[in-house]
Amino acid sequence: MKLRVRSFRCRRIFHLILVVIIIFVTTSLLNNYLFEEKVLKLPSVIPKPQIIGPPPKIPESDQDSRQIQPPAQIPIETDVLEKATKVLTQTLPISEKLPSIAAFNNGTLISKEEIQGGFPANETVASIRDKVREMMKFAWNGYATYAWGSNELRPVSKTGHLPFVLGNEPLGASLIDSLDTLYIMNLNKEFNTAVEWIETNLDFNKNTQVSVFEFNIRYIGGLLSAYTFSRKPILLTKAAELAQRLLPAFDTPSGIPMSLINLKTGDKQNFVWANGRCSILSEFGTLHMEFKYLSELTGNPVYSEKVDVIRKVLEEVDRPNGLFFNFMDPNTKSWCGKEAGLSALADSFYEYLLKEWIRTDHKDVKALELYNSSLESFLKVGLFHKSPQHNLLYVGKYKYGAISNSMDHLACFVGGMLSLSASDKNDPWFQRGVEITDTCRRSYDSASTGLGPEIFSFTDQSSAIAITQSHKMYLLRPETVESYFYLWRFTKDPKYRAWAWDVVQAIEKYARTNAGYSGLHDVYSTNSTLDDVQQSYFLAETLKYLYLIFSEDTLLPLDRWVFNSEAHPLPIQNKVKLTPG
Fold first, then answer.
1. Sequence ranges of the binding site
2. What tens digit of pLDDT does each residue of 501-530 get?
3. In Å, how far are 59, 62, 147, 449 from 158, measured between CA atoms?
4. Would you state the pLDDT for residue 105?
5. What's the distance, CA 401 to chain centroid?
6. In terms of Cα–Cα distance, which of 263, 259, 215 is closest to 239?
7. Residue tagged active-site, from 214, 296, 356, 541
8. pLDDT in the model for residue 106
9. Helices (H), 147-270
10. Where does Ca(2+) bind (predicted)?
11. Of 58, 192, 51, 116, which Cα lies nearest the Cα of 547?
12. What is the pTM of this model?
């Protein structure tokens, strides 16, 4: 009897070993399919952007509409690539129907009014809204005509643009960033043409290094939002495929991802300039919303698990003076330097703490606790500072105990964020949000063009004025109009619509070219030269927020939708009911 038992146990052990060997061999084969393709050497010079796929037909207009002839559609490179794509898709099973998620089985269904409505009764307001819609259509037509499939448009040169953080391959960044804006504005033909391009031409299997952060907020956020609106399966499929290609960035001793990843090889690294090649708080701290929602839609927990690790690290890390610093070593989980703030390198981390609490219908209580404690710490160290002249409230930067006397345009989102988190209009934080937005408005009002500079300073002689030439740029940024949007929704003070209308007119007068919109080098000169870039976020954020300001609150109501850092709306759990796709 004992002999039989031993024999039986031996057979079980043998079978287990055999199963492990089979799994190992299978995994190796899959990895070979996915990652052992021939990797092309990058050229020493970045190639001129090429147009991928046939551009849509653009209606004739008075504008110069010369159209670049696109090359033939690029075929799949090899059989290996085709197999790899199939394997990747197979490892990410996406049901045609949503999994049973209690958080999205409750609430009410999405209505057409809340994603394509909001028509204002007032004729003047309606005409301004129509103007913003025309601006979006004009910007889109320029991109479609001269840069179709590229990442961004150069509206002066009338060609494509490949910014470093989006890689040196044309992957349709502006197209994907525009999807939900097109949908919201009822530009249905343009939306459907964009989806067709995604289905036919979008291939993330490219030997190019990209920003994990930018591809999350622009691509994954844009695809998930557009999928939620339209229920076109290809959009969710592509979001999941891309997320899978970003996962190797998380393979660090701490689980804190690196900033850059090669979409084809999975090679990862941090920026050379990032305080000793450290990871950046605003980047690894701005993944939570999209990764959580993607897991909820696909039923694949891996994305949720990755951001849970990040949250755990941030909950346990030492916080001198209660501060999260801007840089962290992904190997040791230690801070790199002692810089903090609500500007570049940190900003959207705090935004996502608040918004993930909102997105989960207030269930992620820890996120709110971290958000509130961070604001209180900033208050104690003097980050919210009053200017010596005019007593203006601005958001400085903390560096080794000192507070700067300047504010980034990027930090102008803080006014909207504080109003969104405040308990009511009497909350001191709400009042601070109002004051900060007033300060950002002053930076616009002080410029000859009526457009705000990239960085503005506060001295004994002046307030909210850019001093250095490089600070005088206007890059079509959305942060100020983003705060106008929130404060309009919460106060209905007509000044926010008036200020938004001023921005519309200034953009039309100084940033419009005959093929799109461009940034300015000097907001204090009415003859400023142009930077020749139509940023993808101009279509995703700036024009969307302007359109919403002149729409009724029934369009994307804030008790049902929350915007990611690129203004892509995501549904709030238990508020929005999602039907099967």
1. 565
2. 999 999 999 999 999 999 999 999 999 999
3. 17, 16, 7, 24
4. 84
5. 30
6. 215
7. 214
8. 86
9. 173-184, 188-201, 212-214, 221-230, 233-246
10. 565
11. 116
12. 0.85
Distances (CA, A) of 433 to 341, 384, 422, 424, 487: 16, 11, 9, 12, 9
Is 308 noted as a catalytic residue in this protein?
Answer: no
Residues 566 and 221: beta-carbon distance below 8 Å: yes
Given 241, 290, 339, 347, the catalytic residue: 347
- What are the tens digits of pLDDT across the range 338-394? 999 999 999 999 999 999 999 999 999 999 999 999 999 999 999 999 999 999 999
Q: What is the pLDDT of residues 167-216, one digit of tens each?
A: 999 999 999 999 999 999 999 999 999 999 999 999 999 999 999 999 99
3-state secondary structure of 256: coil
- Active-site annotation holder among 37, 190, 356, 479: 479
Cβ atoms 403, 343 nearer than 8 A: no
Pairing of strands 463-465, 393-395: unpaired
For the chain, give the number of residues: 581
Would you state the structure tokens that stand for residue 477, as one six-digit string?
């940024």
Task: Give me the pLDDT at residue 90, please.
Answer: 40
SS (H, E, C) 134-151: HHHHHHHHHHHHHCCCCC
Note if 241 is an active site residue: no
Binding residues for Ca(2+): 565
For 125, what's the count of Cα atoms within 13 Å in the CB-facing half-sphere?
15
Q: At what angle do helices 2-35 and 79-90 cross, to 10 degrees?
A: 130
130 is catalytic: no
- Token digits of residue 163: 């910014």
Tokens describing residue 231: 């229920």
pLDDT for 37 equals: 34
What is the SS3 assignment for 403?
strand
Annotated active-site residue 214? The verdict is yes
